[in-house]
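Sample intake sheet
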Amino acid sequence: MREGQGSGVRNWLCLWQEGWNRFWFVPRSPATLAVMRICTGMMLFYTHGVWTLELDSFLGLHGIFESQFANEVNGHSPFVWTHFAWIDHPAWFWGTHYFALAVMLAFAFGFKTRVSGVLSVLFAISYAHRAGGAMFGLDQINCFLALYLAISPCGALYSLDSFLAQKGEGANTNREIPNSVMVTLATRLIQLHLCVVYLFAGMGKLQGPAWWDGTAIWGAIASHEYQTIDLTFLSHWPLLINVITLAALAWECSYPFMVWPRLTRPIWLLMAVAVHLGIGLFMGMMTFGIIMVVANLAFIEPAHTSRFIEHCVSRAQTRVE
């Protein structure tokens, strides 16, 4: 019995180890992460580019988010840093801002991706620390996506880096992009981080009575601060509001568990697209909705992404011809 039990434990440990290795260390194609790099890089460029309109007023040397206010918001933490605190001349201030935008655009296009990726992460964190009073979910999702993409070879496909490398090897050379373990590591980190975000968001909602009694969605619909499309006519269908509220709550709380099985994954991902684009369309937070949809792309298999891109390219070529 003891030998049989010992053999059973060893077999279980071996199976667990094999599963662990398959989850983290099986090489995969960078196709999905390459698409996410483009989307995340463009979102970084846009969300930081809009500061240009009132850069001095908000982030300037005497702006609303000057160093003292930023320190108060961030709790004087020694880990909270920003390059704005090191600049005391307008020329350097504006020059650094435009350099940051150029770096983020280079990351989106996949130019010198290793360098532009790391610099994009550092700039995104720096801006978030400076504008702590204006930071919300969009900035946090931007930062963690950029971080995990920066450690991956996301510039190996659909990038200027891959185009220049292929051009250097010759036009007649079919350059095959190898699968990489780092792609898998970065993908799993994004997936797990996203699950944690949904889990804690759902648990936070469970602490409020408005989600239990099914009226939370009405609070969002009736708020003129976020309202972009008037849905107050739904007040005539309170039962529908209850159903939408409880369905959204159930989806968010169950996401970390139901997104992993292949059978339920498409359903939960489609619901994620509907929820986040709905928030963007009806509550005026389109940038946040889009970046959350981009984060959910991490659950799309690279083979599906490659086939979709190839299909789009072939259709575009057919139309041109």
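Comment: The chain has a mean pLDDT of 87. The CA atoms of residues 72 and 132 lie 9 Å apart.
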